[in-house]
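Q: I'm a student working through a structural biology exercise. My instructor gave each of us a protein and asked us to get a predicted structure, then write a short paragraph describing it. Mine is GNAT family N-acetyltransferase. I'm not confident about reading structure output yet, so if you can add a plain explanation after the tokens, that would really help. Here is the sequence I was given:
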Amino acid sequence: MLHLRRFRAGDEAALADICLRTADAGADATGVFADDDIWAAVFVLPYVERHQDLAFVVADDEDRPVGYVVGTDDTRAFEDWFARDWWPRAGSRWPRPAADDTSRQAGTLRYAAGRRAGAEPYGDRHPAHLHIDLLPEAQRQGWGRRLIDRLGVELRGRGVTGLHLVASTDNTAALAFYDRIGLERLPSHNGVQAFGRDLASL
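A: Happy to help. First, here is the predicted structure for GNAT family N-acetyltransferase. I'll explain a few features afterward.
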């Protein structure tokens, strides 16, 4: 049976695989980039390096992760760390995109290189943020809600007042899910939809 547990050292490869297999607006992104590893280096591995205590997984009968939630309790501090410590190490594998490169890979690498405290407005009212992904075998069974709630309880215990997440507007299933579990839609940039939750109500 599927079960929820904390992230453990050694889960990194499984989480990177889940990230890749759900990165294309919820679909498999294998082959979308010249190097599949970019996805996890931007969207999941920095979180489990800095905040293993804020990472939870849904695991199968063999205790293999098939879904996860990762996050930070302080978006501003995390983005400063990402820019100062993480991306200079992890991102050194990939050259800076040419100015005229309009590919999706180039856009993602530019996004990673430009992350910094205050670059996004959502952390002011909702200081924590998360990323969540589940493989098809863990979807439509309530695990997404449980993962977000579990992280929310952990954050509230630390005195965090709110959390947010950002999804592509192409990922219509995810948008519907976040609406369904009662997250608040926030003013957002073109192409993405941000959601917030007040943790005082948990």
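A: Here are two points you could use in your paragraph. The radius of gyration is 16 Å. Helices lie at 12-22, 37-43, 45-50, 75-90, 104-114, 143-157, 172-180. It's a good idea to check both against the output above yourself.
Q: Great, thank you!
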